[in-house]
Amino acid sequence: MGGQSKRLPRAIREQQMLDAAIDVFAKHGYHGASMNAIAAEAEISKPMLYLYYGSKDELFAACIRRESTRFLDALTGAADPTLTPREQLEHGIRVFLGFVNTNRKAWRVLYRQALYQNEFAELVLSSRDRAVELTALILRSSSRDERSNDQYRLMATVLIGAGEAVADLIADGTAQTEDAVTLLTDLAWRGLAGRKPVH
Amino acid sequence: MGGQSKRLPRAIREQQMLDAAIDVFAKHGYHGASMNAIAAEAEISKPMLYLYYGSKDELFAACIRRESTRFLDALTGAADPTLTPREQLEHGIRVFLGFVNTNRKAWRVLYRQALYQNEFAELVLSSRDRAVELTALILRSSSRDERSNDQYRLMATVLIGAGEAVADLIADGTAQTEDAVTLLTDLAWRGLAGRKPVH
Amino acid sequence: MGGQSKRLPRAIREQQMLDAAIDVFAKHGYHGASMNAIAAEAEISKPMLYLYYGSKDELFAACIRRESTRFLDALTGAADPTLTPREQLEHGIRVFLGFVNTNRKAWRVLYRQALYQNEFAELVLSSRDRAVELTALILRSSSRDERSNDQYRLMATVLIGAGEAVADLIADGTAQTEDAVTLLTDLAWRGLAGRKPVH
Amino acid sequence: MGGQSKRLPRAIREQQMLDAAIDVFAKHGYHGASMNAIAAEAEISKPMLYLYYGSKDELFAACIRRESTRFLDALTGAADPTLTPREQLEHGIRVFLGFVNTNRKAWRVLYRQALYQNEFAELVLSSRDRAVELTALILRSSSRDERSNDQYRLMATVLIGAGEAVADLIADGTAQTEDAVTLLTDLAWRGLAGRKPVH
DNA sequence: GATGAATGAGGATTCATTCAT
DNA sequence: AATGAATGAATCCTCATTCAT
């Protein structure tokens, strides 16, 4: 008790707070997480939270932004033009599921709290849309067919939906990452990426 | 204000209340929905809600139960042994997406609120599990391969995840049901249901 | 369930209700006893309670009145001019404690709930005053001194206070009636009933 | 409205709150006292009450504890070995009744509310038991007889019961402290403390 | 820069009480 | 004569948020 918190530079404080916030949000959900609990977890006083983030909403938004960015960066960084299309697909999926696996809390906050908290869905959806866009691109480049962008986007959405379902299993510890990678890659490659429907 | 609906028999009031509750839960989420708002929507007084359902939790649970049941009944009723496997798959998917399309609020409450509200997840998951089981059965009967039950279940989970992603698009009005039926059926048939990976 | 309660004549119904009310009041206290619980205990519907007694307050008052009367009747009936003063005293005390012993619930409601429930204290006090008056009379007739009525009344109050303390022990089952009779009689006889203070 | 008392150190606020709480509890009883009313009386906001005491129950318990302690301290401080037994008895009684006289509200809360509020009786009884113990000791040392501890305890209970009845009169302003002291001392000395029953 | 002290606003829940049948 | 259906009004409690130091 008393004066634990030493004058830290702003940047570090911010991260500390976000870490704590994500922790508590992941555990109790948006509504269940009280500013009190977050301040306690961060070992600072409540007014500090307000000084840095202004409101609970903004704090939550900041969490979402930080994690979305980290997430997208991971995915973007995974692109590797030297691979074959199928390898690219597999690599992308592996990076995605790997990220979820090592950032379970973030995943829960982002995709299982924010997404269905009316006021924040948009925030997540915007970066999810970028993920869809990215995936659509990969699908197109892996595909032998010619389809409309909308078609590819719908496919990407579906694939990402499947990915999220699997991600949930992984975040819960119910499924193994590698099994899931194989399954999803196969699904994407054969089901979506293109062979002509019949012949 | 308005109707003041008076002295209805218990059974009718119950449905009225659940309708109102689902409405408000769908719009504001579990926490955001106040008993006040639900009572107002149902055009009854708060004590009635408590008289009939005892607590907010139990009211929410009652919503989940009613809609889960309706949902499963729809899916179960869709089974039709006279169809070919692929037709069965397609029909199942169409019924599923059709249900979501005409029960958007219920869908949101069930799969987008309850599922990620810690205390209620289990309730939804138990009926989701039955859906997974059902789907796994269809997949097995549509499949030419021999796989383990676990394999089929994982596939079913993935397919349902994809289905939910699509369902969200439909619930939002972003996608057309028929397009989605085609895409999903194709995905399931080719990506999962099993032709041997070409070689 | 359903129609247990047959058309009973008013007088019987009234007693039935009071019995139930005293039961519930004794167990849960005035505030803790809900009209619901009382109606349930009496195996009638709530509106009946209101039909007969008008309000919770009046129902409680009715309980107090009935039991006060029974209580005073018992005490009054105990007077027996053929006994010696000391025997009278002892007999009075025995009747009092005996009554408490066989009417524990009533005792609790009257002297442990009503007395300290602001709105009802008066009701109890008025009949308690009559008990004090009665006791004062006995004390005067047992006394060799000459004292003012006020003195006798104060003595009676003290004696009754002691009696109530003992009554509590009896109502709780902590003390035996006969032991208490001996002690109290002795106390009253020697401590109050008269010998000159010093000599 | 009014003082708006601001930013007091914790210790002072605590007492302020307890003072207000005792006031309101004494006037309306446990159930009749709303947290609203207590907050208003203390001229603070409701959340402060909860911040400091957590719940109505705990607030009530805190009142009981503070007053019990003050009470027992007063009694304990009254012991004075230089006095004769009878003087000790008289002094003890005077201190007791004097305390009640100057702490009428506390007396009401402790012995007239808490004692008959099922959930709190125990709390009061434990300190009342200590008072009984103390009194029993004084009685024994004042007594010329040899009796069992149980006997002395029963006597003490009776004496305290009588004392409480008198205390009520004093708290109501119906009796004078000095008159009561004389009467009770006499009662205790002659009726209980022991000269052998004449023969 | 940092915080202990304080509160407005609102939420779940429970009653005593009354209609309409 | 008797009751199932219905509610206004309060109560306890919590939380995001802000001062004053």
TrEMBL record, chains A, B, C, D:
Domain HTH tetR-type intervals: 11-71
Q: Does the keyword Transmembrane apply?
A: no
Entry annotated with the keyword Transcription = yes
- UniProt GO molecular function: DNA-binding transcription factor activity; transcription cis-regulatory region binding
Alphabetical UniProt keywords? DNA-binding, Transcription, Transcription regulation
| Entry's Gene Ontology BP terms | negative regulation of DNA-templated transcription
Q: What name does UniProt use for this protein? A: TetR/AcrR family transcriptional regulator
